[in-house]
Design brief:
The protein is of the alpha+beta class. The protein has 4 helices and 5 strands. The two termini are about 25 Å apart.
């Protein structure tokens, strides 16, 4: 894995990030996904209670900044944030003690 210094020197059109993008209508979401060169992460777009639509996408920093510039609501998760979150997930078997109530995240053997 590249270290932080390598990541800082990587061009923005190469760094891949994950983001959650929100549109006001299904038509806006369709147009965004049809004209973008990014990938969906997980399931496809889904409706929100306020009538908007949300989708998890993966793209380069430049592609995602273009979505921001177009005026869409977007929350970008950069690689270091994703890596930090993954390290917080426990790799222990939280079901090992049959009398205990499992809590948190973990792996079942």
């Amino acid at each position: 894995m590249p270290d932080e210094e390598d990541a800082e020197n990587t061009p923005r059109d190469v760094v891949v990030c994950q983001a959650r993008v929100v549109t006001d209508t299904a038509e806006e979401m369709d147009a965004l996904l049809d004209h973008g060169s990014f990938e969906l992460a997980g399931r496809g777009p889904r409706p929100l209670r306020d009538g908007g639509f949300v989708a998890e996408i993966i793209g380069t920093e430049d592609e995602l900044e273009g979505i921001v510039a177009a005026g869409y609501r977007i929350e970008i998760r950069r690689p270091e944030e994703i890596r930090d979150a993954a390290e917080m997930v426990s790799r222990t078997n939280r079901y090992a003690d049959p009398g205990a109530i499992p809590t948190g995240l973990g792996e079942k053997e």
